[in-house]
Amino acid sequence: MSANATQHTLLPQELIRLKRDNQSLPAEEIKAFVQGIADDRISDAQIGAFTMAVFLNGMSREEVVALTTATRDSGHVMQWSDLNLPGPIVDKHSTGGVGDLVSLVLGPWVAACGAFVPMISGRGLGHTGGTLDKLESIPGYDPYPAPERFREVVKSTGVAIIGQTGDLAPADKRIYGVRDVTATVESIPLITASILGKKLASGLDALVMDVKVGSGAFMPTPEKSRELAKSIANVATQAGTPTTALLTDMSQPLAPCAGNAVEIVETLALLRGDRPNSRVMQVTRELAVEMLIAGKLAGSREEALTQLEKALTSGAAAEVFARMVRELGGPSDFMERSEHYLAKAEVIKPVYAEQSGVVQRIDTRAVGMSVVELGGGRLRNDASVDHSVGFTDIVEIGEHVDSQRPIAMVHARSEAAAERAAEQLRAAFTIGEGTASADTLLQDTFRGEAL
Ligand code: URA
C-alpha cells in the first residue's frame, strides 16, 4: 500500500454516512472509495447506498469532478504523446438517439481536417441505436482490435471507432450495474461522472458532447437535458479536458432512417457529399466546427466551415472512412461496392398512414423501440442483432403523407414482422390538419468553464 493510500481513514460506511447527511466529501476520500470499487473491496450494497445518497442529496461541482477523475483513473488511461501526432486528440460523445449516425460521419470528417479521433463507442441502449452495431454491418470490421493496433489505426488514419474494453474505467462498470437495479440512474452527478469517466480515459485534448432533447432523448425533460449539458461541459473542463456541449433536437429521427446497415448506407451517401444540408449533416457540422476550434485546428467558425467544406467536397472525408474500414478488417472496396456487402432485409415495403395529412409529432422513442423489436437492437444484452432491418425514407415533421406518400419503408425479416412494425410506426406518428414545424435543431451551446 502506498503512503498516500494509508492517509485515507474513512471507512466506506463513514463516507456513505457523510453523503447521507448531506455533507461534502473530500476529493481524496472519493478517490479512495472509487478505487475500492475497482478493486472489489467495496460491496454492491455499499455502492447502492452511496449512489442513493448522491441521488437524493446531489454533489457539488468539486465532488463530481473528483468522482469523474477517480472513475477515469480506475483503469487504463490512454496516452498519445509518445506518438508525436501532428494534430489534437479530440472526440465527441452523445446521449444517443434514433437515426443518429453522427459519429460515423463526424469522426472521418474531422480526421480529414487534421484531428485524431480515438472514438470509443457503444452498442444500442434502450431505444437508441449503437454506433458499434451499425459498424458491425460491415463484414470483417473488428471493433475490438488490440490496444496497440487501435493506436496504430488512429495514427495512420486519423480515426478509429471501436468498442469499450474492460480495462477502461472499470469502476463505472460496477457502479452503473448497481445503479441500474437500485433506481439511481437518473442523477445528473452520477450520469456526468459515468459518461466522462469513460470518455476522458481515452486521453483527449478536447471533447464535444451532443446532448439530445425531445421525444427520443435519454433525459426525460428539456430542463434535465440542459442541466446535463451544462454539468458535462463544466466538469470535463474543470477536470482538464476543454469541453463544449451542444443541445440538439431529437423530437424526430435525426437521419431519415433507423437501423444498422440502412444507417451505413446513409453514412456513405453523406460522406460522398449528398444531402449536405440535411438535419443530420447540420448537427454533424456544428459538432465538427466545435471540435476543430477546441482542437485549435481552426481559429474561427468561418475557418472551420471552410476546412470542413473542402474535406467533404474533395472526397477526403469519405476516403478516411474507407481507410478506417479497411484498417479494421473490412473490405478494401467497401465504398465502391457497399451494396454487395451489406445485408438486405427479406421484406421491404411502404408503411402508409391511416389518414392523409401533415406529420405533427413523432414519438421518436417508439420508432427506436420498433427497430429493436424488428431485431435491429437487443431485448437481452447477450442477443445478436439483425443488421438488415429498420426503417428508411422516414418523413419529417411538417411533411405531407397520403395514400401515395408513405411514412417510411420498413425493412423486416418476414411479412408478419413488417406488419407489426408498420402498426407501431403508424402509432408513433401523429398526423393532422394544418402546418407543423420541427423544433430548432441546435438549441443551445454550453462552453465549459472551470471554477
Ligand atoms: N450513459 C452512461 O454511460 N452512463 C450513464 O450514467 C448514463 C448514460
TrEMBL record:
Alphabetical UniProt keywords: Glycosyltransferase, Transferase
Q: Which residues cross the membrane?
A: none
**What molecular function terms (GO) are annotated for this protein?**
1,4-alpha-oligoglucan phosphorylase activity; thymidine phosphorylase activity
Q: In which pathway does it act?
A: Pyrimidine metabolism; dTMP biosynthesis via salvage pathway; dTMP from thymine: step 1/2
Give yes or no: UniProt keyword Transferase. Answer: yes
Enzyme Commission (EC) number:
2.4.2.4
The entry's cellular-component GO terms read: cytosol
Where the record annotates domain Pyrimidine nucleoside phosphorylase C-terminal, the positions are 358-432
> What top-tier enzyme class does this entry carry?
transferase
Q: Which GO terms describe its biological process?
A: pyrimidine nucleobase metabolic process; thymidine metabolic process
What does the record give as the reaction this protein catalyses?
A: thymidine + phosphate = 2-deoxy-alpha-D-ribose 1-phosphate + thymine
Q: Name one Pfam family in it.
A: PYNP_C
Description of how the protein assembles with itself and partners: Homodimer.
Q: What does this protein do?
A: The enzymes which catalyze the reversible phosphorolysis of pyrimidine nucleosides are involved in the degradation of these compounds and in their utilization as carbon and energy sources, or in the rescue of pyrimidine bases for nucleotide synthesis.
Read off the NCBIfam families from this record: PRK05820.1 (NF004490), T_phosphoryl (TIGR02643), Y_phosphoryl (TIGR02644)
Task: Provide the family line.
Answer: Belongs to the thymidine/pyrimidine-nucleoside phosphorylase family.
Q: What is the designated name of this protein?
A: Thymidine phosphorylase
Q: Which organism is it from?
A: Halomonas campaniensis
